[in-house]
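Let us walk through a complete example step by step. Step one is to write down the protein sequence. Step two is to encode the small molecule, flavin-adenine dinucleotide, as a SMILES string so that its atoms and bonds are unambiguous. Step three, shown after the inputs, is the structure prediction itself.
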Amino acid sequence: MKPFAFEYYQPANLKELLGLLNQFGDSAKLIAGGQSLAPMMNMRMANFEQLIDINQLSKLAYIEHIQDRIHLGAMTRHHEVAASEMIQQGCPLLSFAASTIGHYVIRQQGTLGGSLCHADPAAQMPLIALTLNASFHTQNIDRERTLTAADFYTGAMSTSLEKNEILKSISYPIFTKDTAWAFEMFNRRHGDYAIVSVALCVEFDSDFVIQKIRIGLNGVSDFAHDYSIFCEPFLKLPYSAIWLEDLIDHLQSVFQPFDDEKISASYRLDLSKTLMKKAFHRAINHYSSSRT
Ligand SMILES: Cc1cc2nc3c(=O)[nH]c(=O)nc-3n(C[C@H](O)[C@H](O)[C@H](O)COP(=O)(O)OP(=O)(O)OC[C@H]3O[C@@H](n4cnc5c(N)ncnc54)[C@H](O)[C@@H]3O)c2cc1C
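Step three: the predicted structure of the complex.
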C-alpha cells in the first residue's frame, strides 16, 4: 500500500518549523527518522495533510554534559546515544538500552525524540525516561516548557505535547559512582519489540546496603511504568535472596498485566519475575566486581 497524498515541508531552522506548526496545527505531522511513522503512512494508519520533515534541523542533534545532567537534542539518533562515551560513563542504562532497539539500520535512522514522542508501549526509550525521571524540554512559537517524564506521558501512544509543540531536548541525571544498573528484556526474535523489559538502578552505601531503587517495566501494564515508589519498604535492608523474592512478590502485586492474542497475562508475570531477578543479579554482581 502507498501513503495518501500530503504536502511536504522541510524547514531549515527551528523558527521556520515552529511557524509551520503554528500555521497548520493538528493537520500537520512531523517526521524525524521515519522508522515508526513511515510504516504507519504506508499502511494508511496515520492521517494528516502536511508532512514536516525535521531532518535539516541538525542543531537538534547533540549530546552535552551540563552540571549533573546529560542533555540530548531530540534529533539525536539511537546509534549516537548507544555509542556516546559520555553517556556510557554518565548514564550507561540509557546507552545500553538504545543499543537494543530494533536492528542496526533502524538505530542509524531512528531518533530519541521520535521514539519518545511515538510512545510505543513496548519501546525502550519511554521506559528509560520514566525510570530515570528524565526531563522533557518542549517548545512552541510562544513558550518553552519542561515536563517530567510522568507528566509528558498520558498513556500508550499518547503524550501531553500540544498540537503546535515539539519535543526539543531531553535531560537525564548522571549516575553516582555507587549506582549499579541493569537492563533486561525478552523478545522472541532479535530486533523485535520486547514482550517484557526491566530497567533497574540500585544505589548502595559504603556498607553495601541499598539506599535507593529505581525500577521500571514494560509489558506488565498498558504502558511503561516507574515502580520505584513500591520499593520504599525494602530500602535500607540487607540484600538477600529472601529480600529479593519478597520485593518481587510485592511489585508483582501492583502490576496490571494483560492478555493479547499471542501472550497471556500470566506469561507476562512469569517473565517479569525472571527478568527482575536477572536484573538485580546482574546489577549487584557488576557493582561488587567493580569494587574489588
Ligand atoms: C523493524 C522495526 C523494528 C523496531 N524495533 C524497535 C524496538 O525494538 N524498540 C523500539 O523502541 N523501537 C523500535 N522501532 C522503532 C524505532 O525505534 C523508531 O526509531 C522510533 O519509534 C521512532 O523514531 P523516529 O525518529 O523514526 O520517529 P518518526 O517515525 O519519524 O516519528 C514518530 C512519531 O514521533 C513524532 N515526532 C518525531 N520527532 C518529534 C519531535 N521532536 N517532537 C514532536 N514529535 C516528534 C512524529 O510526528 C511521529 O508521530 C522499530 C522500528 C522498525 C521499523
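Step four is interpretation. The mean pLDDT is 96.
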